[in-house]
Design goal:
Length: 68
Amino acid sequence: MRKTTVCIDEDLLSRAVKSSGARSKKEAIEKGLRLLVSEKTRQAFRRDLGTFDLELTLPELERLRGED
């Protein structure tokens, strides 16, 4: 791990700490970065996989969702 110095809007950082439930500024920043990477990864999967038609009825879909 490496130390990095950045200028961050204090109000935004304070709101991030409160809304994320983080115990520190560092934790809030790390949670935010993980969330950003996760969301971008999901977007890439959606874009790469595209869309396709499923020929399932609603009861069939609900049954499949209930199976683990």
